[in-house]
Write a structure and sequence with these properties.
This protein has helices at 12-23, 79-98, 124-140, 176-187, 206-213, and strands at residues 3-7, 27-32, 47-50, 66-69, 104-108, 144-149, 152-153, 160-162, 174-175, 195-201, 204-205. It is α/β, with parallel strands linked by helices.
C-alpha cells in the first residue's frame, strides 16, 4: 500500500485531508511543526513527524509514495513568511521529492497564481510565491497535479464543484472541505498527473467534473 505525506497537516485543509486518510485506513504521514496540534489523532495509525519547514525536512520523505503540499504561511503573516513557506518550503519539498521517486505530488496553489499581474489583489506577494512554486514543480520532472481554488470559506462542503472560472469574485468562493475532497480524489487518480485546474463552488460531483474536464475513462 502506498504511503502519503501531508505537508501542512495541521492547517485547516490539511487536517480535513489527514482525518479522511486516517478514517479510510490509508497509510499516511503528517508533517507538522508542532505535533500537539494533531492530538485528535492520538491512538490512530497516523505517523506524525515534527519539522520546521524553514529548516531541513528531507527525512519526512523516507518511504513516501505520494505528497500533498497544503502548507501555507497564513493570512496574518508578512511577505517574509510567505516567501519562506509558500515558495521556499515548497521548492525544497519538490527537491526532496525528486530524490525519492514520488508517484504523485499534489500542490495546493491559488487562483491567480497563473498570472499574478492579471488580478487586482492585496495578496499579490502570495500569488507571486505560488506562481514561482508552481513553475518550479512543473519544471522538476516530478509527477504533479496543481490545484488552484478560489477564495476559501468554512462553509459546509457539499462535494459539488466546477473548474470553470465564474465571472464574479463572490461566485469564485469554495469551501475548504470541498477543496480537501477534491485533493483526496486526485490522490486516487494518477491519470491526473500533469494537470492544472482551478476549483470553485459549483453543481458537479467532483469525480464527474474532473473526468469530463480531462476526458478520463
Amino acid at each position: 500500500m502506498s504511503k502519503t505525506l501531508v505537508i501542512g497537516a495541521s492547517g485547516q485543509i490539511g487536517q480535513l485531508i489527514t482525518k479522511t486518510l486516517v478514517e479510510s485506513k490509508e497509510v499516511a504521514r503528517a508533517l507538522v511543526r508542532d505535533k500537539s496540534k494533531l492530538d485528535e489523532f492520538k491512538g490512530s495509525e497516523l505517523e506524525i513527524v515534527e519539522a520546521d519547514l524553514e529548516e531541513d525536512f528531507s527525512h519526512a520523505f523516507d518511504g513516501i509514495d505520494n505528497v500533498i503540499f497544503v502548507a501555507g504561511s497564513g493570512g496574518s503573516t508578512g511577505a517574509d513568511k510567505t516567501l519562506l513557506i509558500d515558495l521556499w518550503a515548497a521548492k525544497k519539498a519538490v527537491d526532496y521529492a525528486q530524490k525519492t521517486n514520488i508517484k504523485q505530488f499534489i500542490m495546493l496553489s491559488s487562483i491567480g497564481a497563473d498570472d499574478p499581474d492579471a488580478m487586482e489583489s492585496d495578496i499579490k506577494p502570495y500569488l507571486v510565491a505560488k506562481h514561482m512554486a508552481d513553475q518550479y514543480l512543473m519544471a522538476s520532472g516530478v509527477p504533479y497535479t496543481i490545484v488552484r481554488p478560489g477564495p476559501l470559506t468554512n462553509d459546509e462542503g457539499e462535494g459539488k464543484i466546477t473548474t470553470r472560472r465564474p465571472t464574479t469574485i463572490k461566485e469564485m468562493k469554495i469551501p475548504r472541505a470541498d477543496v480537501a475532497k477534491s485533493i483526496l480524489y486526485i490522490l486516487s487518480r494518477e491519470d491526473l498527473n500533469g494537470k492544472i485546474f482551478e476549483l470553485f463552488n459549483g453543481s458537479y460531483d467532483i469525480d464527474t467534473i474532473l473526468s469530463i474536464e480531462f476526458d478520463l475513462s
